[in-house]
């Protein structure tokens, strides 16, 4: 055990985690140059394309240290950077003793640098500060070094200068991992206690869970129990993760590995759960297990109603790889049969939608997302509202409650004013203002969750030039004045565009949507009236003037094949349209309408 090191890499998004991890894999010859593709760990297409890490990944490498003739086993856990996935970061961190803290030398300390660092410090991880991308002309080595010293209170000599591009600093990082990160502790003879920090679904083998053993030994063939779910299974295969799975007869305390039990449903395995043996169970589960709760709900409908069953099938498969996705059937007057889905945040929603398209060839329409509300009616009935259609008429409502969160924002004092203005505009109240250092201030706000799911994070980033770290936890439900905002096209309500909003925000929101729709809807052969209404009262309106559209008019002469091509093209365009009364709405409009500036 003394030669094992378990660590993760934490950084703000795009500071170069995946690229540097690739260099470590190369240096330890875990991956040959031939196998080397950029960002080997980001193996989903979507991850590669967007250049972001969505799922955590674990990988084992061996380091042959020349100086003391010892061999070391390194378990590297790659973590995602975006706040929507911070649940995965915290689980990964719990499986490690140390963390490489990467800071981009051209960007300096940023939002997620700080919140991930705090998570790591909370778990008592040894931090190795690394100034990355020092090859860049715009690298500000002295300035950013000072920021790091200021933030974690280390010495200048502790900071390793590195570049994932040129490989500079990689040998120093290897040595620092051995020297500075403590070897894991734990008792190999104690009852088994292993923490699940991630899981993936394999169509042939079922669910594969990744774990870190804190105490005890896990043998192939052991009968194991998942403490929180209470399920029992046989360990068909256990092993370590290199570029692929390497089965082992047993794994001991301190190590990181995978287990395959033949489980076919992702629900059966929960990240954060403890694995123990049925024979000799451990007394306590590992602390900190919590169910992931969806924060944002939206309807997802197939473009073509005949694809409903296919959509169900695709969502079920996707759920196996993404346990945080939940869904149930829903019907819409405008869109037919579909599903009400729950997501961790807006980025999660976007990713699910894109994965449906890429991996399952499912073209879908998403409705305006909302949070869930508690409703109490005049008759004393209590229920949960997850869709605009569930909100009854005002006369029936005793009260409605909405979820609140407490947000911590860490920023420079220069930005306090603009951040306060933003949070007030989002119906927030300041609860704490605390200077961490003369140059860094922590602000706490109570905010309605509904106000932060849309564009809060982006706006915060832009008004603070990226220099604000943001984190939040749900606190409680509080009474609110909720209304249903309807959008009508030539008098026909489009239920997929209805939204639940606070009364004080209804008019502004309605105006924005109408204006945006005016930009997004193609002109048609008749006038289109776009209206936003609360109950019978119209609160915003836009008009699109008529157009006589004849795509073939431009084709003079009798070039019939060209004419046909054009008509076919137009038909293809229609396929991506939805009809409301006489008005056609392109699928893209449903998505883009939410991107309010
Ligand atoms: P997330 O997974 O989204 O959090 O990103 P990441 O931190 O893994 O960053 P990634 O490795 O994907 O790198 C982001 C961008 O920076 C890519 O365009 C890389 O090519 C570039 N990059 C990474 N490391 C270096 C470096 O050392 N020098 C230079 N010049 N560019 C780098």
TrEMBL record:
Recorded catalytic activity of this chain's protein: GTP + H2O = GDP + phosphate + H(+)
Taxonomic path: Bacteria, Pseudomonadati, Bacteroidota, Saprospiria, Saprospirales
Pfam families: EFG_C (PF00679), GTP_EFTU (PF00009), GTP_EFTU_D2 (PF03144), LepA_C (PF06421)
Main location: membrane
NCBIfam families: lepA (TIGR01393), small_GTP (TIGR00231)
Keyword set includes Nucleotide-binding: yes
Protein known as: Elongation factor 4
Purpose: Required for accurate and efficient protein synthesis under certain stress conditions. May act as a fidelity factor of the translation reaction, by catalyzing a one-codon backward translocation of tRNAs on improperly translocated ribosomes. Back-translocation proceeds from a post-translocation (POST) complex to a pre-translocation (PRE) complex, thus giving elongation factor G a second chance to translocate the tRNAs correctly. Binds to ribosomes in a GTP-dependent manner.
Tr-type G domain ranges (all copies): 2-185
Subcellular locations according to the entry: Cell membrane
Topology within the bilayer: Peripheral membrane protein
């Amino acid at each position: 055990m003394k030669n094992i090191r378990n660590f993760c890499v934490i950084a703000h998004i795009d500071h170069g985690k995946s690229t540097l991890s690739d260099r470590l894999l190369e240096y330890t010859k875990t991956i040959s140059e031939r196998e080397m593709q950029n960002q080997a760990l980001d193996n989903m297409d979507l991850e590669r394309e967007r250049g972001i890490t969505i799922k955590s990944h674990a990988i084992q490498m061996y380091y042959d240290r020349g100086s003391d003739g010892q061999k070391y086993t390194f378990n590297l856990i790659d973590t995602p950077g975006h706040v929507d996935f911070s649940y995965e970061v915290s689980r990964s961190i719990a499986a490690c003793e140390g963390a490489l803290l990467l800071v981009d030398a051209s960007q300096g300390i940023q939002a997620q640098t700080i919140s991930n660092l705090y998570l790591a410090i909370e778990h008592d991880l040894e931090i190795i500060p690394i100034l990355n991308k020092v090859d860049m002309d715009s690298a500000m080595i002295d300035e950013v070094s000072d920021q790091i010293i200021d933030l974690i209170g280390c010495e200048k000599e502790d900071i390793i200068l590195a570049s994932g591009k040129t490989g500079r600093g990689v040998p120093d990082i290897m040595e620092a991992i051995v020297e500075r990160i403590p070897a894991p502790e734990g008792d190999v003879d104690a009852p088994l206690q292993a923490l699940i920090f991630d899981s993936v679904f394999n169509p042939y083998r079922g669910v594969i869970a990744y774990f870190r053993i804190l105490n005890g030994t896990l043998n192939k063939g052991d009968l194991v129990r998942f403490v929180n779910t209470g399920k029992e299974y046989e360990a068909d295969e256990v092993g370590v993760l290199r570029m692929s799975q390497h089965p082992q007869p047993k794994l001991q305390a301190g190590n990181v590995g995978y287990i395959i039990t033949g489980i076919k449903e992702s629900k059966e395995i929960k990240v954060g759960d403890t694995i123990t043996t049925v024979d000799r169970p451990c007394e306590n589960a590992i602390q900190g297990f919590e169910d992931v709760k969806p924060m944002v709900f939206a309807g997802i409908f197939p473009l073509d109603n005949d694809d409903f069953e296919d959509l169900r099938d695709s969502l079920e498969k996707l759920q196996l790889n993404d346990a945080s996705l939940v869904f149930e059937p829903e019907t819409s007057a405008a869109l037919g049969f579909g599903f009400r889905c729950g997501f961790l945040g807006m980025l999660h929603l976007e990713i699910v939608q894109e994965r449906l398209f890429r991996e399952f060839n499912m073209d879908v329409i998403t409705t305006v997302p909302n949070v869930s509300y508690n409703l109490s009616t005049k008759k004393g009935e209590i229920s949960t509202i997850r869709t605009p259609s569930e909100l009854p008429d005002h006369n029936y409502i005793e009260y409605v409650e909405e979820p609140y969160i407490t947000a911590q924002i860490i920023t420079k004092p220069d930005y306090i004013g603009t951040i306060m203005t933003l949070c007030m505009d989002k119906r927030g109240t300041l609860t704490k203002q605390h200077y961490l250092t003369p140059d860094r201030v922590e602000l706490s706000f109570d905010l309605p969750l509904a106000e932060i799911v849309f564009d809060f994070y982006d706006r915060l980033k832009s008004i603070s030039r990226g220099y604000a770290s943001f984190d939040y936890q749900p606190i409680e439900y509080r009474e609110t004045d909720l209304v249903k905002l309807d959008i009508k096209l030539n008098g026909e309500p489009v239920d997929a565009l209805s939204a639940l909003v606070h009364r004080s925000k209804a008019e502004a929101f309605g105006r924005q949507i109408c204006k945006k729709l005016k930009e997004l809807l193609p002109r048609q052969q008749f006038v289109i009236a776009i209206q936003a209404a609360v109950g019978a009262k119209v609160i915003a309106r836009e008009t699109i003037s008529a157009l006589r559209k004849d795509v073939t008019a431009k084709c003079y002469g009798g070039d019939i094949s060209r004419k046909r091509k054009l008509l076919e093209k137009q038909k293809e365009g229609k396929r991506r349209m939805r009809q409301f009364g006489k008005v056609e709405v392109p699928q893209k409009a449903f998505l883009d309408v939410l991107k309010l500036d």
